[in-house]
Task: structure prediction
Amino acid sequence: MTNTITILLGVVAIAMTLIAFVSASRANRAQSKATTVTIEAGAYARARESYESALSTVREEVAGLRAEISSLRQSNDRLRDQITSLTNEITRLRS
Result:
């Protein structure tokens, strides 16, 4: 009877060890998954910040280019007016 009790206690101890091992493995996997999610969330936040910064820079450059185009158009219009005026003067002088 003592041997049977000893064997049963050994089986129970082995079963408890196995349950503890499985539980610890699951906990480690869950912690690893949570860490991965946290890392991915941080990477997403950094990527978003970088994207928004680049987008802001591009918007500023586009605004600058639009201003430059407007200035060039005005200059072009002035030069056309001068060309027209000079052409008219040349025509008048030739007559």
Summary: The two ends are 139 Å apart (CA to CA).
